[in-house]
Structure formats: C-alpha cells, structure tokens
C-alpha cells in the first residue's frame, strides 16, 4: 500500500495548527486504498476523495446485501471508484464485483462512487434524492 500525503487546503492547515483538538480527529494510521485520499472539508471534517482527481466519494442507500444497485443506468453521473482486479482488503475497505465483472471499492460494505457534477467547493450530490451521501472520514 502506497501512502499519500493528506490533501489539505492552506486554510485548513492554518486551522489545524491553531486548534489542537482537530489534530486528534485524524488518524493517519488507518489504511485506505491507493485510489482514495483524505481531504479537509470545513464543517464536514475530513472526507474521502478519489485519488487522483479529488472528487468526493459517495455511498448509495439502494446498494444492499452486497449487491450493487447503481449499475448501467446511473454510472454516467455516478462513476464507481474502481479497484484493481487483484485488489485485497485494506482495513475497512474491500472490493466488490459489479454486474460487468469489474471490481469496485467498498467502505464498510458500501460501494463508493463519485459525482460528475460536483464542484471543488460544492458537493452537489450530497443528499440527492435522499439516497446519496458523502462518505465521511470516521475513526
């Protein structure tokens, strides 16, 4: 597993330097796949993002019982975060097989996606349809 530096905007770095309790919230020892990075999101805390690309990661409430519900009809706007065919579990991250046979990363059993229409500072997909949610960083 390759370790990448945590991506923090300059304002977040300043805030972390000024508030010691915020430092305790980030545990860099927790493993995650090389296709994923952590980023500071202001009041949302740290969130996972696709690496490279920096798109926020989302989960879909309709993915149930290890079955992926977002297949052919929604992947245009919601690209999956693909895992290599040889992917092995990394901490709480596992790879699940999609209908097309490709592997996709899942966090705590929830397959993860990005949202094509997100902007760098605007998570437009969070809460969409009541079933899409930003994947927050949790210790």
Please tally the helical runs, counting DSSP H or I stretches of 4 or more residues: 2
Low-confidence stretches: 1-25
Q: State the order of secondary-structure elements, H for helix, E for strand.
A: HHEEEEEEEE
Helix share, percent: 10-25%
Q: What's the rounded overall pLDDT mean?
A: 77
Span of the ends, CA to CA: 19 Å
Q: Tally of extended strands?
A: 8
What oligomeric state do these chains adopt?
single chain
Tell me what portion of residues adopts beta-strand conformation.
15-25%
Structural class: alpha+beta
Radius of gyration: 15 Å
- Give the overall shape: globular
Total domains, how many? 1
Largest sheet geometry? 4 strands, antiparallel
Question: Can you characterise this structure?
Answer:
Strands 4, 5, 6 and 7 form a four-stranded antiparallel β-sheet that branches. A hairpin with a 5-residue loop joins strand 5 and strand 6. The protein is globular and about 35 Å long. The protein has 139 residues and is α+β, with helices and mostly antiparallel strands. The chain has two helices and eight strands. It has one domain (10-134). It starts with 9 loop residues before the first helix and ends in a 5-residue tail after the last strand.
Write the layout of secondary structure elements.
Elements: H1 10-18, H2 20-24, E1 36-40, E2 46-50, E3 58-60, E4 82-83, E5 93-97, E6 103-107, E7 110-111, E8 132-134
Antiparallel strand pairs: 1-2, 3-8, 4-6, 5-6, 6-7
